[in-house]
Amino acid sequence: MSVYDYKSKSSLAGEENSKSGPALGPLSEPLLLENNVQVLLNRFLGLHSFGASVAVNYGSLFEVPAINGSAHFLEHMLFKGTKKRTWKEESALVESSGMEWNATTTKELTNFYFSGRPNTLPLAIDILADRIKNATLPPDELESERGPVTNEIRADTDDPEWAAHIGLEKALFSDVLCVDTVGTEDAMSKISRDKLFDIYQRNYTPDNIIISVYGKFSYEKALNLVKENFGDFDRQYGGMSPSLGFTYPKAGDHVSESNGITSPISFMGFRLPGVREINDKDDSLWPSVETLTYVLDDYTTDTLINELRLATEAGVWTEYNKNLGGLFLYMRTNDSKLESTRDLIVKKLDSIILGETSEEELKACTRRMNIHDERHLDNSSRMARALARNQMLYGRNSILTSPVNRESIMKYAELYLNPKYLVSFSLVPKKQEQISCS
């Protein structure tokens, strides 16, 4: 979540009251079990479902090249059976319950999640705990799973937009060993079951996970379920957390040719400090950057696409983690318009630094942000994941708490979004060799 503070709302642990209508308790402070497992329980009685998530603080930033992709591979393997159940037995239980389940891996965490009717919460918590505590990584399943993982890597490699995005990330974060979450074919072909199991044992530990339940459920029953299933979890953390300091990237334009495209794909971006560096210093950075994202997104859509017809596709987004962050701009244009499109974005950034963004423009962007976040409230699975992620990476449920004004936008635009720090990566069609007919 981004701009919400629910502390004035109804009691979190209070019982449901059908007469009062939908009720959302305050975002809970994490409960700490005796074994240091953190638990977030947030009821939203307006929903008909729950979302349950377990976030593990392990992702690609924790890897070295030899094991790049191990976090993503582990995500796959935790669907392949435990000491308690085979994967077929687990799948049959979930399918018969009507629940939905999945998992994601990012730079700094892996997230396993369920959503379903309130009466299926016990099964969801049971399976999540079983995976986190008792995964077996069967050797035969691991070998067969290399194929799907390798196919994902190849699909990403063949996707020109993904290739351009990774090219930009490598230029922006040149001091980071591994930014591509899915890993490399070479690493995935060599990583052994023993090595993967060692990574699992070292990182899937009580003090390295957060459990989040959101939506419609009984508070006391959910807390008891978590205690029953995770209270006996006893494993010592043996991983290594990254600690990356902020450095300005070396600005420049990077170009690579590709046979698979007919028009250029361009990504531009700025490196931003990780939340770890600014959490206790200045709360207004990320709200300002998020607002700037909407300002730039409106500009690319309204001006570059609709008005000037310089681009056929465009988008702007931010990524913020504990150790690093970035603001990214994506465009699809043609060779003759690539440079002029980039120049207009630089000009827009200069105008933001000079304070030429109107109050009306800022208010419109703030309204869009609020609407965007309000939509998430009705998605129990997404909210459970988001709250676990925020607590894991930022140390609290919400990071965008300070009001945004033109002065803060100007300040951070000049500090971090100054065109002199802009890095771009463009993938352009490979020039065909001219064949002589002499």
Question: How would you characterize this protein structure?
Answer:
This protein has a six-stranded mixed sheet with strand order 1-2-6-3-5-4, with helices on both faces. Strands 7-11-8-10-9 form a five-stranded mixed sheet. Helix 1 packs across helix 4 and helix 10 (285-307) crosses helix 14. With 438 residues, it is α+β, with helices and mostly antiparallel strands. It is globular. Helix content is 42%, strand content 17%. The termini are far apart. Mean pLDDT is 87; it is low at 1-23. Strand 9 and strand 10 (324-332) form a beta hairpin. The chain has 14 helices and eleven strands. It folds into two domains: 18-230, Cytochrome Bc1 Complex, Chain A, domain 1, CATH 3.30.830.10; 252-429, Metalloenzyme, LuxS/M16 peptidase-like (Cytochrome Bc1 Complex, Chain A, domain 1, 2-Layer Sandwich).
Report the end-to-end length measured between terminal Cα atoms: 66 Å
CATH superfamily of the largest domain: Metalloenzyme, LuxS/M16 peptidase-like
**Regions with little confidence, pLDDT below 50 for 5+ residues:** 1-23
Instruction: Give me the CATH architecture of the largest domain, please.
Output: 2-Layer Sandwich
